C-alpha cells in the first residue's frame, strides 16, 4: 500500500517575543530595541525534524501535552503554515477541521459559507450544489442556513463546519480536537460518519486528548513532545508509553 | 498566479457576488447607490468647478464623469485591496484557502460598480449629445489595462500591509494626493508647463486621459503613451504577484 502522507524532516519555529507579529517604532524606542540588529528574536521550535509516513487508509491519532506541536503539524499539512525546513507531501484532496474556529465569515449566511468553504477546498460548484442538502441536513440547520453565521450558536457553527468537511469527499481528513463539540446525539452521528470514512479506507489524522479513542479506534498513534516525535507506531503501544511518561511527571 | 486564478474562478465569482450583495445590505435603496454615488460626486464637482471656479470646459459633467468613474474604481480597489489579506484572516488562518484570490476579488468588486454605472454614463453622453463613435470599442482594452495595473498595485500593498500596518495610513494620503495629481476634474492644459512632468510620470494620468478620449472626445486613446502604461501594468503585476506568492505562506503567522 502506498503512502498518503510523507513528512520528511519538517521543522517549524515561531518568533517568541512577538506581539501581534510586528514591531512599532514606539515599542522599539521604549525597549531600546532600535539599536539592536533585526533578526535576533528568540524562537520556539514548534516542530523539530519530524519525519514519518502514513500509509493510505490509516487512522492516525496524534497525542501529546499542550504545546507539543500537534496542531502546528496539522496546520503545516493543511498548508496554513509553511515549514521552515524539510518537505512533506499529501496525496489526494485534503479536508480539514482545524481548531480555533473554522473559516467561516460571520456576516455571510450559512449557504454562502458552504459555497465558499467548499470552493476553497477545491470542490467544484456542481459537487457542492449536489451535496448541499445533505450538508444542511447532516448539520441539522434547516432554515438557519439562510441566516448569517454570526447568529449561530457555537454548536450550530461546529456542526456546519463538520458537515462541510465530511461532505466534500476528501481523501485525507485532518481533524483537530473538534469531535467533542455538539450534543451527544451529534457526537454519535459524527463519530459514525468518521467511522464510515475509516471503513472506506480514507486516511484520517486526528489530534485529540481522548486516549481511549486513540487506543481503540486508531490504527497508529504519534506522540509528539516539544515538537519532536517521541513515539510512532501501533496505537496501543504509543498510548501506553505516553501514559507511563505522564505518570512519572 | 494566473493559473491559480483560473482554477479558482468560481470562488472569485462567489466572493465578488457576496461583496456586492453585502455592500448595500440593510440599506433601503440598495443597488441604486451604485448609480447615485457617482451622480452625487458629479453634482458637487460640477457646482464647484464649473459654476464657482468657472472651468471653461464644455459639457463639464461628462468631462468629469468620464474621468471620475475609473478613478473611483481605482481608489476603491486600492482602499479595499490594501486590507484584503487582513480582512480575510478568518479564511487564511483557519482553513485551507487560496489567499491569492482576495486581491482579485477587491479589484473585481470595484470594477463591477464601474460596469453597473456604465449605462448611466452612456445615457448622459447621449443627453449631452457627445459624439460617440467606434472609439467606444477601445473601452474594454483601456479597462483591461487598468485592471492589470490596479491588481499589480493591490498585490504589492496587500502583501506588505500584513507586515507594515503603517501602509494603511499612508495609502489614504497617497490616494488623496494622487486624486489631485491626476487630471480627473481639471484639464491637462491648465497645468503650468514646468509641472507637467508630474502628470506625465503618473501612469494613472494616461489611463484617465484614455477614458476621456474614448468617452468625452469620442476619439481613440494615444496608443504610444497607452502602450507604455500597458507595459508598466504588466511589470507591476509581475512584481506584485511575485511578492504575494513569496509571502503568502507566512501570512497566517502574522494575522
Helix share, percent of chain A: 25-40%
How would a crystallographer describe the biggest sheet of chain A?
A: 6 strands, mixed
Q: In percent terms, what proportion of residues of chain A is strand?
A: 25-35%
Q: Give the topology string of chain A: H per helix, E per strand.
A: EHEEHEEHHHEHEHEEH
Q: Can you list the strand order of the major beta sheet of chain A? A: 5-6-7-3-8-9
Strand and helix order of chain B:
HHHHHHHHHHHHH
Structural class of chain A: alpha/beta
Count of beta strands of chain B: 0
Largest sheet of chain B: none
Q: What coarse outline of chain A follows from CA principal-axis ratios?
A: globular
Assembly type of the chains comes to heterodimer
Q: What would you call the shape of chain B? A: globular
Q: Please tally the helical runs of chain B, counting DSSP H or I stretches of 4 or more residues.
A: 13
What do the pLDDT scores of chain B average to? 89
**Rg for CA atoms of chain B:** 19 Å
Largest protein interface?
A: A-B, 31 and 25 residues
Q: Which structural class do you get from the secondary structure elements of chain B?
A: mainly alpha
> Low-confidence parts of chain A lasting 5 or more residues at pLDDT below 50?
none
